[in-house]
Amino acid sequence: MSNTKAYAAASPTSPLASTTITRRDPTEHDVQIDILFCGICHSDVHSVRDEWSDFMSTTYPIVPGHEIVGRVTEVGSAVTQYKPGDLVGVGCMVDSDGICPHCKAGLEQFCQNVIFTYNSPDKHKTAPVTYGGYSDSVVVDERFVLRVPTNLELAGVAPLLCAGITTYSPMRHHGVREGQKVGVIGLGGLGHMGVKFAHAFGAHTVVFTTSPDKTEDALRLGADEVVVSRNADEMQKHAGSFDFILDTVSAKHDINVYLNLLRLDGNITLVGAPEKPLDVAAFSLLMGRRSLSGSMIGGISETQEMLDFCGEHNITADVEVIPIQKVNEAYDRLLKADVKYRFVIDMASLKSE
Ligand code: NAP
Ligand code: ZN
After folding, report:
1. SS3 for 46?
2. For 118, phi and psi rounded to 5 degrees?
């Protein structure tokens, strides 16, 4: 076992602070990775503050971080796909049972025994729970390690490991394509990736935002139109016109106003995970045979497909790189929707702790 520097929160109300954790020595199937960058996902904030306690409560201390890119430093004897020096990524999952129908279908995220990158039971018993990427290094089974395209800027690749796959997967699943009108609600970390993918898939892309000052950026990121969602008249102009809308909002909001914008058989997919339930009026769904569904990250092979797609199309996240010492400030700014458009921690800053 080895000691690794990390940032952890000791309780739902404590700030993240410097600490030391243990990582296991690589077993025969493991890859040891020196972490270079780690994105800050809003899920990190929900988890640190235990906002999802009804669904999955947080075990403290928590070391968040599931948008990891780094360099391989060591591999176990049975590892075939990676070697020291390779640039790799790790997303929201580090293990699953590998034998259930979901795993066999490449949908490890829905495996009943999925192990998330942080706050899941650690089957290796190195610690009570898994610890995430706000740390110097991590040890992961090679089945959950992704190959990172080498032509892309590394800090902008980190957010692809969660924000990227979480928006790519539902759009692929629902067949987003040219000729469709597609909406993205919320221009944050997930939302701005959703805009890039909807645009890359050829859809007419509309951003719904509560922040009018993000309009210019939204157009630059690939949106064809921007709607300030608090303006009821602007919203009304789009009634009954959308094929698909991706909802990335992190807080409670009125979903009915968006359901009313769907055309016949249109779908809204929730990827945002607000702490409090959303109210759905039956008529919002009955009218126009609309549907509301959800989606969670994406499987490992689809994550690799998404990374390769980004490599081919030169897609990365727009990032604000910060030292880890600014992580608590970044959390506060996320709550104010003040991020353009993903905070990414430069892990070199942890070495000075
Ligand atoms: P983020 O960067 O904070 O972006 C959220 C955006 O939602 C904000 O930028 C803001 O956009 C909008 N927003 C925030 N509060 C709002 C409110 N009260 N009313 C209306 N709009 C509001 O967060 P993120 O990292 O993209 O994550 C978004 C959500 O997805 C979080 O709940 C996260 O936990 C969840 N998530 C889910 C998955 C999954 O697998 N399903 C994966 C990752 C994250 P505007 O300023 O444009 O309005
Ligand atoms: Zn995430």
Report:
1. helix
2. -140, 155
Of residues 79, 87, 47, 86, the one with CA closest to residue 66: 47
Q: Residue whose CA is closest, atom 34 of ligand 1?
A: 43
Separation CA 208–CA 126 (nearest Å): 44
Is there a single domain that holds both residue 45 and residue 13?
yes
* Domain CATH code at residue 190: 3.40.50.720
Specify the residue with its C-alpha closest to ligand 1, atom 25. Answer: 42
Q: Compute, in angstroms, the gap from residue 118 CA to the centroid of ligand 1.
A: 20
Plot region of 105 (φ>0 → left; ψ -120 to 50 → alpha; else → beta) = alpha
Domain contains 12 = yes
Name the domain count of the chain: 2
Averaged pLDDT, groups of 10, the chain, 353 residues long: 96 98 97 98 98 95 98 98 98 98 98 98 96 98 97 98 98 98 98 98 98 98 98 97 98 97 98 96 97 98 98 98 98 96 98 88
Cα gap 271→296, rounded to integer Å: 7
Task: Please name the residue whose Cα sits nearest to atom 9 of ligand 1.
Answer: 188
| Assigned domain for 313 exists | no
Tell me, using a 6 A CB cutoff, whether residue 291 lines ligand 1: no
Closest atom of ligand 1 relative to the 249 alpha carbon:
7
State in Å: Cα 66 to ligand 2 middle. 6
- Residues 26, 106 share a domain: yes
Q: Answer yes or no: is the C-beta of 188 below 6 A from any ligand 1 atom.
A: yes
Given the structure tokens 């988890």, which residue do they identify? 47
Distance 189 CA to ligand 2 centre (A): 9
Print the domain residue range for 332: 2-159+298-308+318-352
226 C-beta closer than 6 A to ligand 1: no
32 lines ligand 1 (CB under 6 A): no
- Both 287 and 193 in one domain: the answer is yes
Residues 256 and 123 in one domain: no
| 168 and 134 in a common domain | no
- pTM of the model as a whole: 0.98
Same domain flag for 302 and 289:
no
- Partners of 181 in the beta sheet? 204
